[in-house]
Prior knowledge:
Elements: E1 2-6, H1 11-24, E2 32-42, E3 47-55, H2 60-77, E4 82-85, H3 91-97
Antiparallel strand pairs: 1-3, 1-4, 2-3
Helix pairs in contact: 1-2
Amino acid sequence: MTTVWFPHAKAPMAGKVLLESLKKFPEDRSLAKNLLNNAVTATKEGYKVFIADEIKEGKLKEYLAQANKTLIFFAESIEGYKYEIEVLSSLPEAMAILGLEVPEE
């Protein structure tokens, strides 16, 4: 899951950079399935954006490399732009670590 923050005053620039990034870094569907694409909320500190992808088996390293290239492109283009990438486990993955299995519905 990726969370992004940028100042309110940088919203027009963020929109332009997004359009440019779509051309420069096209989505690679072989790496992940998009679950939540750029959900945006306005906060008192600025805009906050959420992106959630389900990374395909064996593609984590490649996915993170591509995500960081894209996000660094944004950070270099927009003053005050910050991001955080978190690798989360699904419930079945987390339960498997404990040696347990989630019953199928």
